[in-house]
Amino acid sequence: MKNFSFMRLSIWFYLVIFFAYLLGPLVIMSITAFNSPGFPRAAPWECLTFEWFSALFQDERILNGIWNSVLVGTGTVILSVAMGLAGALMLTQIWPKLRATYYTIIIAPILVPGVVIGISTLVFWDRVNRMLGLDADSFLSSGLFLTIIGQSTFIASYCMLVLVARLQRYDNALTEAALDLGASHAQTFRKVLLPFMRPAIASAAVLAFLASFENYNTTTFTFGEYPTLTIELAQKVRYGITPAISALAFIIVLLTVFAALFNEAKIRRQELVAAARKTATVEELETGKFRLPGFLSSNTAAVLLVVVAMATIAVVGTATVYSPAQCIADVKETKRLETELRIQELLQRRADEAARRAAEEGEQSDQAPATDATPKPSNDSGFGNVFNPGTLQDGGTETPEEEPENSGSGGVFDPGNLQSN
Amino acid sequence: MSAGVGVNLENLWIRFGDFVAVRDANVNINGGDFFSFLGPSGCGKTTILRAVSGFLEPSEGNVLIGGNNMKGIGPNKRPTALIFQNLALFPLMKVWENITFSMEIKGASAKERRKRADELLDMIALTGQGDKLPAELSGGQKQRVAIARALCAEPDVLLLDEPLSALDLKLRQHMRSELREIQKRVGITFIYITHDQGEALTMSDNVAVMRAGVIDQIGDGKTIYNDPNTAFAASFVGENNVFRGTVKKVIGNEVMVSTNRSGDLMARISSNNVGKMKEGDDAMLFIRPEAFALAPVGTQGDHFVTAQVTKEEFEGNVFNIFMEGEGGKEMKVSLPNLGQSFESHKGEPMTLEYDVHNAVALPAGVLATE
């Protein structure tokens, strides 16, 4: 019994650790999007601010990157779902002995590093472009085309895996039944196979879009004049990051939560409707008295969805009227005071030190004949006090006259000063 | 007969690599007939059906539907509709959409389709269930929807591939009469595939008995049952007791067989084998369980069989007696329950008599394995 509860406890502990590991970074990053310091950090909490969101939406390059990512993503979804479906159908139709080989070949792009795919796409299409005698700014060498083609080479394989899983559950007798009832092959594909594949096609499309959206290592070779979001972010990070990127991350997390909740709510609703239909009597169905269950009834996902949507609307609403200027000013003020306090402290310490040294010097001059090895006591301090920890703070210079200027230049390295200027 | 469209198979061969699935099949199916292919699983009956529906090109020979050669014509262009073993209802379409699929692809409007679906739903006694999904129907209802869907295509020939095999016994018996009823009403040719001889005999105008790709016999139910062509047909259709032996004497269309166990027995030669059996040939003699009658114990003669009783069973309408038969196999005798008293004879010898006309002699051949 004791063992058992210990087991449960450790499982809970493990779960907490696991989810903290999984979601912790996202939560921290989302918090930094609302904190006012110019460097993304969650603690110390200074002021609630939405300025990073407006900073994000005023950043032309980020917006352009998002637009390019959407363009590339759409193209990749269309191309790779089509290729994936063709590949999956081929896999079920192909001569059984060839199936294993075919599978390996079609899966290979997933195993090839993205960098290699990027380079080879660039080289290959450049060759094609030249062979066709086209200019360097032709469609075939445009960044959009190359990125879509390059990403699709391996994303199509992902799509195929998703589609094959569904296709394996397809009863070929359905195709035969449709043919037997007079449908052409095209009609059978459109009216029987495609509707059956629709859920898998939807998930393949989502997968393809996400894979395209987050791709960096292939795109970095092919983007040309169409830098995607990941490329822009990578370039931005080189010059230091701001919470605007956290804001973008937060928006993406929020959209993901929305999508997941919406999907869950839809599935739950379908289940509820199916259950309701099953219990409904024929008369109810006949007379149209049959009532579908409400969207929110016993559907936790839908309720959550609505709650999250409300929260978002509320936040956006407050964001438009809320101004953290006062808070930021207060924080600035406290910081200024803090810095002043610190400067005072430093000055005090140095004054003390100078007094102590003066006293020491006085002592030394008294004993001057005893220590003739030391040539000039006034100059000696620069060398002889190297090992004095107190000198570290002053960068070796310790003449009291220089102190005010010294603290001004030294303040550059004080992180607190970043915000105050 | 009604003016249905007939189906002819001419010297039909179907091979898969080295395996011969159908061997030189010649069948004439009259228009408007309910025709069954009966045989154990793997005998090639489904293969024939697929050749008729167009999913399989015959290796040799022709399939003619209504006198037209179907060579090179795809399944979607043939005037046939197939009811699949697993029914193959479209799982994502509602019942009415399933039924009228053949109209949808011809471009009929939803209103027209709905109207026709309601008519057909009335016919199959599923009125008002058109908006359900196939998964929400019971086995028998799905069965009827599959039939309605096939009929909606207005085929000249309806092909049924063991459509009742997945149903429970009660429903199967009900669907048998229903199918027969529907066939009479629409008057089109039905080709029915089954391994259940009860289904074949009760529903069909004509039956073809198949074994390992070969059609052993074609005839109506009575002929198949009473006058089998081969040892296989005799043993596959219905229950039968076999006596192996050699032909001792041929007298007109009757024959005396000296059997391995029960001495010389007389039998009628099956009508297709008259003149083909000679003295000294290996022969098999078949007597149905219900063809026996009790006789005084120890009676000798060419239509008396004596054996030890091993088991007795009371089945209500009949009393089954199992006796020591050939090769460890029991011989079954069914005596009708006419109110007489049955005393147990377990372990005792018993003598049975039969009418020579009810015993069939055939050249020795492969028996159906049960």
UniProtKB/TrEMBL annotation, chain A:
It is found in: Cell membrane. InterPro entries: Bact_Polyamine_Transport (IPR051789), MetI-like (IPR000515), MetI-like_sf (IPR035906). Residues 66-263 form the ABC transmembrane type-1 domain. The chain crosses the membrane at residues 12-34, 66-91, 103-125, 145-165, 192-213, 241-262, 301-322. Residues 352-421 are annotated as: Disordered. It comes from the Bacteria. Its main location: membrane. The keyword Transmembrane applies. Coiled coil: none annotated. Keywords: Cell membrane, Membrane, Transmembrane, Transmembrane helix, Transport. It is a multi-pass membrane protein. PANTHER family: PUTRESCINE TRANSPORT SYSTEM PERMEASE PROTEIN POTI (PTHR43848:SF2). Belongs to the binding-protein-dependent transport system permease family. CysTW subfamily. This is ABC transporter permease. The lineage of its organism: Bacteria, Pseudomonadati, Pseudomonadota, Alphaproteobacteria, Rhodobacterales.
UniProtKB/TrEMBL annotation, chain B:
Residues 7-237 form the ABC transporter domain. One of its GO terms (molecular function) is ATP hydrolysis activity. SUPFAM superfamilies: MOP-like, P-loop containing nucleoside triphosphate hydrolases. InterPro entries: AAA+_ATPase, ABC_SmlMolc_Importer, ABC_transporter-like_ATP-bd, ABC_transporter-like_CS, Mo/tungstate-bd_C_term_dom, P-loop_NTPase, Transp-assoc_OB_typ2. One of its GO terms (biological process) is quaternary ammonium group transport. Pfam families: ABC_tran (PF00005), TOBE_2 (PF08402). GO terms for cellular component: ATP-binding cassette (ABC) transporter complex. Keywords: ATP-binding, Nucleotide-binding, Transport. This is ABC transporter ATP-binding protein.
